[in-house]
Design brief:
Distance between the termini: 33 Å
Number of strands: 12
Helix content: 25-40%
CATH class of the largest domain: Alpha Beta
Number of helices: 9
Shape: globular
Number of domains: 2
Largest sheet: 12 strands, mixed
CATH superfamily of the largest domain: Gcn5-related N-acetyltransferase (GNAT)
CATH architecture of the largest domain: 3-Layer(aba) Sandwich
CATH topology of the largest domain: Aminopeptidase
Radius of gyration: 20 Å
Length: 301
């Protein structure tokens, strides 16, 4: 086994395929959806050369057997290995390597730990990590049967993104929906860069358009051909247009599009303290599948 740095898009595809294989194995360890990784890497203010330098690929010959992503700004790291290595000393070596790379920080975290993943939890607790207060809720729903949501209010319409020309328009909605404190002129170029990236598919971003032409709500859907599992990330509604049923209309459209592309189920995650989002997703037919825990470790002096 040897470790090397990230070298390009071919490596990204291998990393994504490893996530798909992990989700298909369903061995108790949580593997994020391949859409999550693409969102993390390309919807960011971190320069491309920086995030690429924070990726490590673990190889046996020409086979990728695991990868780590270091996120110093978030004081966090991710480690994903091929399913057959769960609990293997090689997985432990990768985990220890990633934690050691960030050991100079006052505190580090590992997120996305499935609540019943005894193998990963045992390693974390044996190496000084303890459960953090925050966790995420993983939702899932089947795409079988009819997917008939409510009708849009009069004057509103649905359409897909036109790509970079919609970057500023969509950013107005996301800036407000997530309460960003960053000045808008500094905020919206991130959306533009993402829409210009190789992972962005305009047909997978759906807008609810208000009568005045604003983006009232939006979401991005992601597909996985191996597992036939779809994913939503992100989902947002401008505060001026909330409580009108627009989010439900948007989500059902996303579900229908996922089904039309051959997906058989859809998933998403949200913070456990997001008291508005949880009942909203449940109203669309999503069910809580599991909790995703966060483990943290504080540096001792």
């Amino acid at each position: 086994m040897n470790v090397r740095s990230y070298q390009g898009f071919e490596d990204l595809n291998a990393m994504l395929d490893l996530l798909s294989a992990g989700r298909q194995a369903n061995n108790g360890t949580h593997y994020v959806h391949r859409g999550d990784l693409q969102w993390w890497l390309f919807y960011t203010d971190t320069p491309q050369e920086v995030w690429q330098s924070n990726i490590r690929l673990w190889m046996e010959g020409d086979q990728l057997i695991g990868w780590t992503l270091l996120s110093p700004e978030e004081k966090a790291f991710d480690v994903f290995v091929i399913p057959s290595l769960s609990g293997d000393p090689r997985e432990c070596e990768m985990l220890a390597y990633a934690a050691d790379e960030l050991s100079a920080l006052d505190e580090i975290e590992m997120v996305w730990v499935a609540e019943h993943d005894d193998v990963r939890i045992q390693w974390l607790e044996a190496n000084g990590f303890t459960p953090a207060d925050r966790h995420f809720v993983h939702f899932q729903r089947s795409l079988a049967g009819p997917l008939n949501g409510p009708a849009l209010p009069v004057g509103f319409s649905l359409r897909t993104s036109r790509g970079p020309e919609d970057a500023r328009l969509r950013s107005v909605a996301s800036h407000a929906a997530f309460g960003s404190q960053k000045p808008f002129e500094e905020y919206w170029p991130r959306t533009l860069r993402f829409m210009q990236s190789p992972v962005y598919v305009p047909g997978h971003e759906i807008f609810v358009i208000a009568p005045d032409g604003q983006v009232a709500a939006y979401c991005i859907i992601w597909t996985d051909e191996l597992t036939r599992g779809g994913h939503f990330e992100p989902v947002g509604t401008h505060p001026d247009f909330q409580r009108r049923g627009l989010g439900q209309c948007l989500m059902f459209e996303g579900l229908r599009r996922l089904k039309s592309e051959g997906m058989t189920e859809a998933c998403l995650c949200t913070n456990s303290d997001n008291t508005a989002a949880i009942p909203f997703y449940e109203s669309i037919g999503f069910e809580k599948l599991k909790r995703l825990l966060t483990y943290k470790k504080t540096r001792t002096i």
